[in-house]
TrEMBL record:
It holds the Pfam family HTH_18. It comes from Niastella koreensis. The lineage of its organism: Bacteria, Pseudomonadati, Bacteroidota, Chitinophagia, Chitinophagales. This is AraC family transcriptional regulator. Gene3D superfamilies: Homeodomain-like. Residues 163-261 form the HTH araC/xylS-type domain.
Length: 267
């Protein structure tokens, strides 16, 4: 997949395979481009831009190099770290109003210098253990100083409440996560999720997910002329071979055969 942005050519280097955001993550792009997707919209981060990926949400990223260069900083702001910080610091907390999965961080004079300050502490792509807590605290102070409302996000340790299962599944069926995760994110136990799912869709979650993804794949190949190798990850399949097998079992021909038929018809 290629994407034209601002007159520069970006080439996809990696598509995330883990779609459940287990903790808050700070993402800062130094070089290249990172595109984040939450099932509803895409958020682009260009050099100098950053955001918080919100915990207990579904999302994926596309990392793209610009002129063969890609550099980003990703730091986890996990629950245990946040609780330790809160214990040591008095912080004013108000309800965080935004419902976005990816919260953009506004420009700060301190952030570019902070990012550059991390370089001496990196060890094999990670901040070395003795400094990890200190550097993350420094980041958190900068974020709370520039956007105090983030305290309502970081220091809310609640779990997802019960939500509409149909709306959630229609928005997130392309994400590759376990049924247990889906149950948790809709505010249900596994048994309650399966029961409510059957009442809503008249199918098991696994069967519905496969059929929904395959129907979307058929549409993209037949109507949009997209290549199977370009879409299988986006639709929640882990491997191209698994996607092709399931597709042929459902429709009686492989994805490449369907694409070939479409091209023949055009000629």
């Amino acid at each position: 997949m290629r994407k034209e942005t601002s007159g520069l050519r970006y080439v996809v280097d990696e598509i995330s395979t883990e779609h459940f955001i287990a903790e808050h993550y700070f993402i800062y792009v130094v070089k290249g481009l990172v595109i984040l997707y939450d099932g509803n919209k895409h958020v682009e981060l260009t050099p100098g831009q950053c955001c918080i990926a919100r915990k207990n949400r579904l999302g994926r990223y596309y990392k793209m190099s610009e002129n063969s260069e890609l550099e980003k900083v990703i730091l986890a702001l996990d629950t245990n770290f946040l609780k330790r910080f809160q214990d040591r610091n008095k912080t004013t907390i108000t309800k965080f109003k935004s419902t976005e999965t990816f919260i953009r961080i506004g420009k700060s004079d301190l952030l570019p210098d902070y990012i550059r300050s991390l370089t001496p502490y990196y060890d094999h792509g990670q901040i070395s253990t003795p400094f990890a807590e200190v550097k993350r605290e420094e980041l958190l102070i900068i974020l709370l100083q520039s956007q105090p409302a983030l305290a309502g996000l970081f220091f809310d340790y609640g779990i997802p409440g019960k939500i509409n299962i149909e709306e959630f599944m229609m928005q997130h069926y392309k994400f590759n996560v376990s049924i247990d995760r889906l149950a948790f994110l809709t505010g249900r136990s596994l048994s309650a999720f399966k029961r409510d799912f059957a009442q809503t869709f008249n199918q098991t979650p696994s069967r519905w997910l496969v059929n929904k993804r395959l129907s979307e794949a058929h549409f993209l190949i037949q109507k949009k002329k997209q290549k199977p190798s370009d879409i299988y990850l986006d639709l929640g399949f882990e491997t191209l071979s698994h996607f092709s097998f399931a597709f042929k079992k459902r429709f009686g021909l492989s994805p490449t055969e369907l694409l070939g038929l479409k091209r023949t018809a055009i000629k």
